[in-house]
Amino acid sequence: MRLLENLDFIIEDINNRSNARLLSSMIENNNISHAYLFSGNDMGSLYSLALKFSASINCLENGCGVCIVCENTLKSIYSNILIVEPEGNFLRKEDITGIQKFMNLSSYAPGKKICIIKEAELMNAQAANRLLKTLEEPPDEESIFILLTEELSLVIPTIVSRCLVFNWNLKFSEDKLGKNNFLNIEKYLDEGLKSIIGSPVGKKEMPLDLSLKLKAILKKMEAGFKTGQEKEIEDIRNSDFDRGDINKFIKALNSKHKRRLNKLGKLGMSKVFDIISAWLEDMLIVKMGVVEKSLNYSQNYFFITKKIDRISIDKIFNIINTIEENRRYLNQSINTELALDNIFLQFQDIG
Ligand SMILES: [Zn+2]
Questions:
Q1: Mean local confidence (pLDDT), 18-23
Q2: Predicted structure pTM score
Q3: If you count Cβ atoms within 10 Å of the first and of the last residue's Cβ in the chain, which end, N or C, has fewer?
Q4: What's the 34 CA to ligand 1 centre distance in angstroms?
Q5: Percent of the chain with pLDDT over 70
Q6: Exposure of 302 by Cβ count < 10 A (0-12 exposed, 13-18 middle, 19+ buried)?
Q7: For 243-290, what is the HEC assignment?
Q8: What protein residues have CB closer than 5 angstroms to ion ligand 1?
């Protein structure tokens, strides 16, 4: 399978499919533009996409994925590729000068010279002007720019107008900040669900308490994230850019943070849903008499076996339905916090 046919980080929809087809056909017909702008909701995925596209452009087989050109491009160590990302919080004039130098050299290795610019909205006026010049008069036919942004509306319009723009719907990726908190969520859910389903009356964890505990963890994730954001904004305020640029950066950063916060919230809630679903699947599997190895959480086998007789299949399915319904709401910015109360109350009533 070619690299552009295997984009596991994009959501399967018509828009994405037609984007991918268009890019592939440009490569096949050797009709590649000199400037692209990829916009979408996840910088990590946009970057992977840009690398796959770059590899496909320079690979003799249009993106085989295994040749040395593909391999090195995907690792971003191919000598024809220049990756530029804002140092600290913004792209400076000097970054763009570096790009111009790179693009003016003749190719190092076979194929085109490709410059990938991450977070293209974080550029001051001087840098943007320089880049615009290069986009208007590319040094030669072999130069290609791929700009990436999570916030198309903040990229300077004259730059946008010089690029072929592709919008993508991307899956969210877990980031470092999330990892530890997710482990906590798993731990509390495991203990909490066992206690709701299984403990003797009086010692039971109350469903709404578990719900509160999880919401507190999700809030803590947000708080940690906000501290980082304040520091970033402070750094920009103290920088030596002119007022206009500083205001623009702060606007761009605020918008970036809002987006990431929203993503983090959804990610946390969707993780909670995943774990509960896995629990429910395990109950169904045990109910069907399947062996312990095929459980999502095999350590729970004995616990579930002991309880399973009095657990009703209908009620398990009801909770699964509630979860699936609320999963759909996650993509529509509807508040799903109440769903947790509802789900845990259903657990209490499962027997
Ligand atoms: Zn290849």
A1: 95
A2: 0.65
A3: N
A4: 21
A5: 92
A6: exposed
A7: HHHHHHHHHHHHHHHHHHHHHHHHHHHHHHHHHHHHHHHHHHHHHCCC
A8: 59, 64, 67, 70
